[in-house]
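Hi X.,

You mentioned you wanted examples for the new student's onboarding notes, showing what a folding record looks like when two proteins sit in one file. Here is a clean example. The first protein comes first, with its sequence line followed by its structure tokens.
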Amino acid sequence: TLFQIIGTLKEKGVAIIFITHRLEEVFDVADRITVLRDGKHVGDLDVADATKEIIVRMMVGRSLNLFPKQPAPIREEVMRIEGLSRKGVFSDISFSVRKGEILGIAGLMGAGRTEIARAIFGIDPRDSGDVTIEGRKSTIKSPLDAIRSGLGLVPEDRKLQALILTMAVRENITLAYLKDFARGGFVSKSRERKSAGRHVEELDIRTPSIEQKVANLSGGNQQKVVIAKWLGVKPKVLILDEPTRGIDVGAKAAIHSLMCKLAGSGVGIVMISSELPEIMAMSDRIIVLHEGRITARLSREDATQDKIMMAATGG
């Protein structure tokens, strides 16, 4: 609908400035492209002369593989969801995730993807259903229960649901496993700094200091801080809800590479995404939701954009 409105406005002679992180949208609606990098004007080109590779090179200053999918050995089942339901939201959701696997969850906004993740993690209540971790049924009624069971959740809105923006990078990274640094009710700042600093280096988080307020970081670096928080927990299953929303292509490639690294280490990953190229490129298997129900289960080899969209719209 948005693109139709843009087309109508163009026909009436209205000039449109369209700002987006999604390269596919640029080719759908734009006539000419201006590229910025680090607050500076890099260059202009006509859409007819552009390719994704050219634009990415202009944006990050080098060639970049946006979807660096690395095959990982897929091992035994690590999590099973059976009959998960919440009246009026989702119904009879069942799926499994294996160690080393990236399971993609696709669907339109409002299909119930985020609500399912929140129910699994104990944020929202569920009416029925079981969560089994490594063959043992887990009673998850709160995020603390979920963490103790070996789950981590990167929510879709990092600023409202994942970060405390007025706190430092160090404090945000160690929030989920603060008890590891506490003795007698007091937190060891030196041990906390050491752990946070290791994660900052490992994830290449661009910050002047681990004491920098996380609000002052770019969106991509904020997202890396959220992921670093869960690396400290050492999760068996990591749920990523829109992991690359609102970040630049360089940060996207870095997070995709990290996902592959985690899968390679045996972590089971559930990735919820609205971006079909991301779902198709990064997933080993895909389930599709429509109005709170699973409408398709696809292998990586069988998945196409048409099949996913057909299932996502109830076809």
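Then the second protein repeats the pattern, sequence line and then tokens:
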Amino acid sequence: MKTLTISLMLASLLALAGCGTTTGQRAGSGALMGAAAGGIIGSMSGSWGTGALIGAGVGAAGGYLVDQHKKGHID
């Protein structure tokens, strides 16, 4: 059950990672959503701060990649 919940949360965050119209907005929104998800997942293992930092990095990278894909730079 825990794995299913985490998988659904990550899938929904990935879908929302590119919210915004500029590269900075998309990376920023991805970082915020990633930090929130990482904090929640990290709190399950006792280290919410580490989870939030990792989630922010992954979210920012995801937002940037979505932006570059929408601009046609990545196929």
